[in-house]
Amino acid sequence: MWDSLRIREWIARGERVYLAYLQGDGRPVEVGGTILNLVDDDALIVRARTGLGLDRTVVVHRHRLLYLESLSDRLTHFAREEFLLDTR
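and the corresponding structure tokens:
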């Protein structure tokens, strides 16, 4: 899940990502956005898109991250699933 080289490539390309992490109170949250920076290979600074069309900046520490995926990886996965469903 945590691949520093891949994360740096996503930052350079401005790749949209989806991630899930634990908030300070232990509740999980999932957001989509753009990684702005990788801090000391231990935390991500993410510009998260909210449902109201507003952006917020979130700092996600590595030990709180549950899930991280780029939009292009997610679309490839969905396209593969659709193909498998269509061929049945």
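(Above: one complete record from the training split.) The beta strands are 16-22, 28-39, 43-49, 55-61, 65-70.
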